[in-house]
Amino acid sequence: MTLVGELVLARNQVLQFSATQSDPALLSATQQLNLLTSELQESVMKTRMQPIGKLWSKFPRVVRDLAGICGKRVRVQMEGEDTELDKTIIEAIGDPLTHIIRNAIDHGIEEPAIRTRRGKPEEGKLSLKAFHEGGQVNIEISDDGAGINVEKVRAKVLKQGLISPEQLTRMSERELIQLIFLPGFSTAEQVTSVSGRGVGMDVVKTNIEKIGGSLDIHSELGKGSTIKIKIPLTLAIIPALVVTSDSCRYAIPQVSLLELVRLDSEIAFKSVENIHGAPVYRLRGKLLPLVYLSSVLNTGSAQLNQDVASIDIVVLQADKLQFGLVVESIKDTAEIVVKPLGHHLKSASVFAGSTIMGDGKVALILDVVGLAEHAGLASKVEAIAASNLAGIQNDSTEGEKLLLVGVGDNSIAIHLSTVARLEEFPASAIESAGGRPVVQYRHGILPLVDLADFTGGYSAFSQNESPFQVVVCSGPHGIMGLIVDRIIDVVQENIQIQLIGERHGFIGSSIIHNKMTDLLDVHAVISSIDPSFFDEMKEALIGGVR
């Protein structure tokens, strides 16, 4: 395998050199070399691949012995034993899987008498499942036991002082379940041969992450738990993104890559904010913490360079944490041969290894989880989450977002949540279908509703003036346009609605920007034209309330 890795590196160098040549014979020979090397690499990789069933074959006995010690009855069910992984991966996941199975039997599956009282079979079921998906191997370990008691986890975490009470109050049930991976966490009341020995689920998570994998847990109280593990097929040759920082090249494993963002320098300086000293970028409405690669590697400062034309951000996933890595430039993707670092460099947690590029020079492979830890993102994310929460609370106290429009002499407010787009059409675009005015819109038909029919006045549309303004609203069955005379503004205010007579299509009236404004009932207006337009939405809302 090592020799094939060296051959792949030599092949890359030859390909890079031949790209600068124009000799047809040389190019033909290079292509043949590339083809043969790829086939040889694939063949050797197959010899390293072993079925996961070889590892699983020992688990039935482990389950039987543990069930006997704990006084329980457990049946093992396996699926996907033929799923193949690299030999080194199989060796690395043996101990974590064994620990997960021990936990499932000791903490998850109940004793026969308890299962009978709960209406379950006396014999518990432990399921192991493996399958390929998206270039990775998924392993799922499920049990039909008691599940994870969130309140018990909360109490234990508080008792052991692992999380502050303020943090716990902001956590969802799913986040509380993830706390079982905290170092030092244990629910065992006393030390036995199975539990309470100080080796917790944090060790399992660490070992899985060391090989580039991720771990997630789903649990339902009284019904059981499922732990899902995603791991790469091999650690020897991996696809990577090549980036530069201070003119040095680095490789980032693509398994951790989410997306690439490029910002113009001027936009970047305006959009990058600081929260408690941590730089963040608002990506699609959410705050994304930023890490400057040059700062982490102590080769530069944690500031944007004003001399460059654009800023490149590599959005990465480290465990459950997303962050943006600011790099000098993004080069290309490449298949790299992973070379382990020497023992004297093992303490450099930001590097996962090294590789030799096509020009024969060495590039270091970045460890995404190590980068996040070295940059101290855990504490920064807590502050950012608090800011997000404060932002949400501020939004809720600042009032409702409304679109102000004018129809004749009337000022009308429309809830912005019901508005999809604002459009302008010439009068010549108006056609008729089913006795209703329509326009051709985005390869479809947009039915039109004239709001002047509900205000009792005359609109520009009725006078055939051009162009006319349309507020496009969306529903489960499509879209519909509300014709107005003019678009005034978008406001956010706390409004007090007063009912002044009963008028079809309006909720009531309020004073907005020192002017009497009618609040439109979009559902009533559109439903008067098409009663089924919001039916599915109403059913979903009713179901949610129930």
Instruction: Provide mean pLDDT, rounded.
Output: 78
The share of residues in extended strands comes to 35-45%
Helical proportion?
25-40%
CATH topology of the largest domain: Heat Shock Protein 90
Span between termini = 60 Å
Question: Radius of gyration from the CA trace?
Answer: 31 Å
How would you write the strand order of the largest sheet? Answer: 10-14-15-13-12-11
Low-confidence stretches: 389-397, 534-546
General form: globular
User: What's the level 1 CATH class of the largest domain?
Assistant: Alpha Beta
Main pleated-sheet profile: 6 strands, mixed
CATH homologous superfamily of the largest domain, by name? Answer: Histidine kinase-like ATPase, C-terminal domain
Number of helices: 17
**Helix-strand category:** alpha+beta
Number of domains: 4
CATH architecture of the largest domain: 2-Layer Sandwich
Number of DSSP strands? 29
Q: What tags apply to this protein structure?
A:
OB fold (Dihydrolipoamide Acetyltransferase, E2P); 33% helix; 4 domains; Heat Shock Protein 90; six-stranded mixed β-sheet; 546 residues; 17 helices; alpha+beta
